[in-house]
Amino acid sequence: MSELAPLTEVYERNERGPSPSFTAAHLVLAFLVIGDSETVGRQALAAQAGLGDGAVRTVLKKLKAAGFLKVNASGCSLSGGGRRLYRRVRAKLVGVVPLEHSPFTIGSRQAAMLVKKGGALVHSGIEQRDSAMRVGASGATTYVVRGSRFTVPGGSSDCEKDFPNPVWRKLRTDLSPEEGDALVLCGSDDPKKSQLGAIAAALTLA
Question: Is the pLDDT of residue 16 over 70?
Fold first, then answer.
């Protein structure tokens, strides 16, 4: 079972009322923000996850009902089960690393996320791009680590050699990519949308 399955199941769990105004990527991002922060207030979480007030309440309700969340006067934090799930998810999804404008994907504000052993699920990269765009990103490019090199499906077999740029060193330093990993670079003029797009794209590979 995928490390992300418990969170996608939480998102898909039916409740009475209208369909949610947020995506599975929003819920995963909110979960990661809470785990990264230890404790976070609802307003801060809404701002960081790009959620409206009603949507963030629904996300918190779903995570709490699943047993992953504790809410008290100081804010929201993960339960014991939530922390265990967070560690598994973070072992699969590494990042998101913010990047200034690079030539390797579209959009002035970019974010990179590494999906451990996700390379086997990469085909043309179109699925990742489309998933990112559905949540408002401008686009996304997917790379696969093969022979310790960043490769593009159907394109370059050594991006660092073919397209020299300091960003590759930053990605290696910050994300420590290994054989078989997938790297998603997502861009937008809005940094929140580039971050959300990177997670949406990563969900297709997790």
Answer: no
pLDDT tens readout for residues 165-193:
999 999 999 999 999 999 999 999 999 99
Going by C-beta distance under 8 Å and a sequence separation of 6 or more, which residues neighbour residue 81?
Answer: 67, 68
- Length of the chain equals 206
Four-way CATH pick for 5-89: 1.10.287.1080, 1.10.10.10, 3.30.200.20, 3.10.290.10: 1.10.10.10
Q: Largest alpha-carbon pair distance within the chain?
A: 54
For 114, residues 6+ apart whose C-beta sits below 8 A from its C-beta are 93, 94, 95, 175, 177, 181, 182, 183, 184
Whether pTM exceeds 0.85 = yes
